[in-house]
Amino acid sequence: xxxxTLIILTLGIGLIASWWxxxxxxxxxxxxxxSGITGAQAAQQMLAYYGIYNVPVHQGAEGQDFFxxxxxxxxxxxxxxxxxxVTALATACHEVGHACQYAQDYTPMKVRGALxxxxxxxxxxxxxxxxxxxxxxxxxxxxxxxxxxxxxVLFHVVTLPVEFNASSRALKYMQTVGVSTGEIxxxxxxxxxxxxxxxxxxxxxxxxxxxxxAARED
Length: 218
Known about the structure:
Elements: H1 3-29, H2 39-49, E1 57-59, E2 66-68, E3 73-76, H3 78-81, H4 86-103, H5 107-136, H6 139-176, H7 181-217
Parallel strand pairs: 1-3
Antiparallel strand pairs: 2-3
Helix pairs in contact: 1-7, 2-4, 4-6, 4-7, 5-6, 6-7
């Protein structure tokens, strides 16, 4: 496979994932929940349900929906924080799912957290080391660059169970507290579409790694 083919393939995967995610988010942002509670209220209720009282729920900028283990806090974008839609519900409960993972020392989350420093170094350095190895004709540097990139790939792979599990926790909570079947189905559609962005990232990084390994053999 040529590098141009790889670029086109990975770009296509990324575009499909982005389109699907945005489509689902926008579609269910126009579907109100029966309870009428906001995403922030849903997050607080889910935290209380699981006996987690030390996790504040903040409002961030648009597009900022995440759980931060460093501050042990949930941040929701304005549309999720104030929104009363299925998208807001799904987003809020998913992020609280991460808070539950942290509170329960969920192993994949701990592994991903441990990889963060190495990933930050590898993501910034691997390409410089790779091209330095090619320019200087040093196979050892090329091998080191591929090893650094493999760390980044591992991070993407480890992220998958963390994201899938957070969504599973969100849906299980909704079922337990009696959220309607339609809202659960809509939330599942939103979370599944968002999860595909992580699958796409892992897949494209893995394809890149396989290409580098094949090129190294040649």
